[in-house]
Design a protein that fits this description.
Low-confidence stretches: none
Number of helices: 7
Radius of gyration: 17 Å
Order of helices and strands: EEEHEHEHHHHH
Number of strands: 5
Largest sheet: 3 strands, antiparallel
Length: 188
């Protein structure tokens, strides 16, 4: 997802990137002259389906954002950020730009080059759709490529069950906890 905020619970959805085959990507804008309601309904039919599996890089963020728009990803089959954590627990950084540079030797378009920083920072909704599309499609393509590599490495290092049996099921629980919050005993 492309959004207006790093906090998924307050972010507005700007667009969605999809990739089902290496090098073949699609970007669905939700800003500009788009009928957002119809696009959301179409996305809901695609995503809110237990027969279709989805994966991403930090997909819990996308799960939250889509949920805020009435779309629930029913079947998450992989997360490249979780795989990166499992494969490289000693690393402090698991962002897609860093991993893409390490694995492929490719320097992706940075978010900073797209929206800037500081007082002149733009909101993603103010960036030209073509630029967002290129940025997003690059992200989903490299996420797709990383999934294939990380799946093999997890299997070789006998870490697959850790991802599939613990981390991915826990993703839904953590998302629910983040959505609901927790009660605290203030006086205590």
């Amino acid at each position: 997802t492309e959004t207006t905020n790093i906090n998924p619970l307050t972010a507005d959805l700007v667009g969605v990137g999809l990739c089902a085959k290496e090098g073949i990507t699609h970007y669905i804008p939700l800003n500009g002259e788009i009928d957002k309601k119809n696009v959301i309904e179409a996305l809901k039919k695609l995503v809110d389906n237990s027969k279709t599996s989805f994966f991403g890089h930090n997909i819990k963020y996308d799960y939250h954002v889509l949920l805020q728009h009435g779309i629930e990803i029913k079947n998450i089959c992989f997360d490249t950020i979780l795989a990166s954590y499992l494969l490289n627990p000693q690393s402090q950084r698991h962002n897609l730009d860093k991993i893409t540079l390490e694995v492929f030797g490719i320097e992706k378009t940075s978010i900073k080059s797209l929206i800037g920083s500081g007082k002149k920072q733009l909101s993603m909704k103010d960036v030209e759709i073509e630029k967002i599309a290129t940025y997003c499609q690059e992200d989903v393509d490299y996420t797709f490529r990383l999934k294939g590599i990380f799946e093999k490495e997890l299997k070789e290092k006998k870490l697959s069950s850790l991802l599939y049996d613990i981390e991915l099921p826990l993703l839904f629980i953590l998302a629910k906890m983040e959505e609901d919050g927790i009660f605290i005993d203030k006086p205590y």
